[in-house]
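ok so heres the complex, two chains, lmk if somethin looks off
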Amino acid sequence: MIAWRSTWSIYKRELLRFLRTAFQSVLAPVLTTTLYFIVFGAAIGGRMPDLGGVDYGAFIIPGLLMLTLLGETTSNSSFGIYMPRFTGTIYELLSAPVGVAETLIGFVGAAMTKSLILAAIILATARFFVDYSIAYPLLAVLYIMLVAAAFSLFGFILGIWADNFEKLGIIPMLFLTPLTFLGGTFYSIDMLPSPWDTIALANPIVYLVSGLRWTFYGSSDVNIWVSFGISLAFLAACTAVIAYIFRTGWRLRA
Amino acid sequence: MEPILELSGLTKVYPGGLKALDDVDLTIRKGEIFALLGPNGAGKTTLIGAVCGLVRPSGGTIRAFGHDLATDWRKARARIGLVPQELSTDMFEPVKRAVSYSRGLFGLPPDPARIEEILRSLSLWEKRDERIMALSGGMKRRVLIAKALAHEPDLLFLDEPTAGVDVELRKGMWAIIDQMRARGVTIILTTHYIEEAEEMADRVGVIRNGQIIAVDEKDALMAKLGRTEAHIALAEPMQTLPPAIAQFPVEIEQDGMSLCYRGGDGTGRGKAEVADLTKALTRQGIDYVGIETRESSLEDIFVSLLGENAR
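and the predicted structre for the whole thing:
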């Protein structure tokens, strides 16, 4: 049985932590998105052809959304669990009558909420630069939540694995951001010459960007159900790893 | 008295091979203050960690309030509080919010009146809206106590509660611990200050190299292992002990200018024997110019139990 009061306490505290740095948390993605739209939307986008019948400025919105979403979700979640480990306050969580379910729903739920707030802010910012409409809004929200949940779990694992700040930053910086840039954020995989169009399919981020793009415009590089399947598989894999961590106490309990 | 915590064969071997707890058997009774004494690295914090869920035991069982912590840990942990040795708390959080969070984390509904009562009892109410980072070291430690009390535990672990705290604050902390005992909270504390255990504990346990080497009522331990020491300064030097004096546990010291008595059992019997000794000296016509007596403290007992590893 889940102890909901404990879960709510963790969730609320994590959100309050986010609000403590709200100015930075909100301003940074707004500024980054604005810069991307100025450079890729206005400066370069005007010279680009429509992609699959979608204006280039609108085409890059799902990719930009995914770029921010993956980075912010992973870092929010990883910091959420790493900081208590680093400062020693994890003792309180470990000594409380809470298990894996309460911890995950609390930490990951808060990270997901932050991500959804950021997604809304980015979409609102994009509205100032390009006109766009979302073909399947409900599916888009569902998809964003799915990806946010998966990468919150991934961040949680990262926060437990890392034993210093360098390790905490290295995965988002050296893997996530490059893979997202190369994952079709700013272009369609079809635009790549052979064999790069095939090699690109080995990049898991391609499926995530493509899936979100499908919910926006009804077309994408990869079948939507393949994207959903890969996202769900990633979510399941992360959940299994976390279940193992809690069962064995790896890096949590001495 | 009803046991509240039972450790049986508790063992912890760290991955490097260090045996921090070695087949520990210990029973804590309801309502008592139990002081766990031991030198650095003896296993005190590991023992606390094993009960509180911070350390995975390698063997043995832990039962708290009748629940096996390996299987029924939720019910047991809900009634256990922990004040860690390190000042570990979110320094950016205001005091009241941090304490309220702890209550919620342990699954209890919000109770502002109870939080206020706890903060007032620890003289923290005036600081309730201040960030913890702005508080003094002593106050930060009291915040940790408030957090541990927020879920109204029946069993409270205090790991070195007065480490790094000045004498005045330390005495204030003792008063707080007394208040908790008055409320019926069972307290297990680890400390380096033997004086602290002597002042507050009902029972004392001594741990060395992961093994409990002595557990007893504080008074019984002092009676069993306590000693009286008396130094009698003689008016004239003495080279050999007359038979009437040699029947006492005495030695000649300082080139015959002093007699040293070491005896008794911590119940005051030593003092009576010293009185008999002085009478015997008078009867033998041996003059003396001064007497200094001292009862051994818990610290002396601790040092004698641990030998060279006492510190």
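quick notes: The mean pLDDT of chain B is 87. thats all i got rn
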